[in-house]
Amino acid sequence: MVGNVMVRRAVAAVLAVGAVTAGSTAFAVPAGATGGTGAWRADLSKVDSDDVNVQSSGGALTLRDSTWHRTDLMTAGSEGYLISGEQPLTSAVNRVTAQVTADRPAGTDVEVDVRGRTGADDWTEWTPAGAQPASFGRAVSVVQTRISLSSKTDGVRPTVREVDLNGSLAPQADALLASTPLTYTIYATREGLVGHTTANGHVITSNDHFVALPSGKATSAKGSGTYSVKVCRTDGTRCEYAPVWDVGPWNTKDDYWNPASVRSEYKDLPQGQPEAYAAYHNGYNNKKDDLGYTVGNPAGIDLADGVFGSGLGLGDNGNVKVTYLWTGTSAASGTVSTAGDPVNVRASATTSGAIKGLAANYAKVPIECYVNGDSVTGKLGTSTIWDRIGAGNYISDTYVQTGSDKPVAPLCS
Q1: Chain segment 321-346, per-residue pLDDT in tens
Q2: What is the pTM of this model?
Q3: How far apart are CA 99 and CA 111, in angstroms?
């Protein structure tokens, strides 16, 4: 069996989201706050395509199917989540607290995460809003909420009645010091699991193109690539830009790419080292992951079949170089989404240029500059513009959702 498929199924049975909120207990606005926007309430009434197995009735949110879960190894119970609409704020905040009013029978749970942005799509990671305020590391002007529900027993469901939030602005250091997106060499496994459902509700198909990371902090909504990676062979000969759509392998709250100041668990490990690596090689955490499973390989990323084979041309599990495209202080300045089936990334701005890999549908890619090259008719029209999205990586502008028929970056020098 290629990859840690059985453990992936078990990991996928658990929603990897934020910290548990405590009934209808209010959490105080952080002491020393120097600004704020007051309070707002998450809209629980609108369930749409980016939500998973939830329904709203009379303004209350509950699980739609009380026996549905993503994998066959979760033998009982259910799970789901709602991503609320975006909340524009009257002034910037960098912290958010949450107060949840919910009915939670024994064996059920409700969890809340929030994220924020200032520009068009420069979202922070999903951050738990529980007993401690969610801290974004920078000021944001729009906030979005993810409310996750789970049950361990068939037929038993939690019901969320209100989620009240409060934003504030407090002095704090920027948690991300790097100016460019972070890159680490990580052991990768093939996910497989065709026909199963990912953490964001996507049903896995043959030759699919997405990746899984062992934390829900960077899971993109279905049909989006807000959180995307560039994953490459270690020799750099082939790469794929792909969205993060699933949680795994092994852990569910191991955002190992983050510094200890914001890493959810295993803060004593070096930044960039997955817990699975330390458990497998060094016996860390008694060789267990955060679900109690014995770690059988050091994987910190799972690759869907299309990324593993068509994208990178891998024949077996092994090390890859992963760039976490949403990280770094400059990450959001020029990233845009691709459109259409995975498209070829070429070494030059010609249709005969060597293929360097793929850009998956919905993946976010960083446009560095542009050149004029061969005319291409693609998903978004016909153009001679080619966007450079990395060193020696070019993609026709007709497959990139720039919002313009003209260049959106400087001419490459």
Answers
A1: 999 999 976 554 456 788 778 999 99
A2: 0.88
A3: 11
Query: Taking a C-beta distance cutoff of 8 angstroms, is the pair 240, 390 a contact?
Result: no
Tens of pLDDT along 75-93? 789 999 999 999 999 999 9
Average pLDDT, whole number, for the chain?
87
Query: Distance between CA 110 and CA 102 in Å, rounded?
Result: 8
Q: What angle do CA 127, 198, 159 make, to 5 degrees?
A: 60
Residues composing the chain: 413
In this structure, what are the phi and psi dihedrals at residue 156, rounded to the nearest 5 degrees?
A: -105, 125
Token pair in block for residue 272:
């960039």
**Which tops the pLDDT comparison, 37 or 220?**
220
Whole-number Å distance between alpha carbons of 135 and 142: 14
Residue 315's pLDDT is: 95
Tokens encoding 217: 């902090």
Q: Which strand (E) or helix (H) includes residue 98?
A: strand 87-103
Into which CATH architecture does domain 12-26+35-169 fall?
Sandwich (2.60)
Whether CATH 2.40.40.10 fits 178-324: yes
**Residue ranges of the chain assigned to CATH 2.40.40.10:** 178-324
> Among 363, 366, 319, which Cα is nearest to 342's?
363
- Amino acid identity, position 179: S
Q: Which residue has the tokens 């939030």?
A: 165
Q: What are phi and psi of 158, to 5 degrees?
A: -80, 160
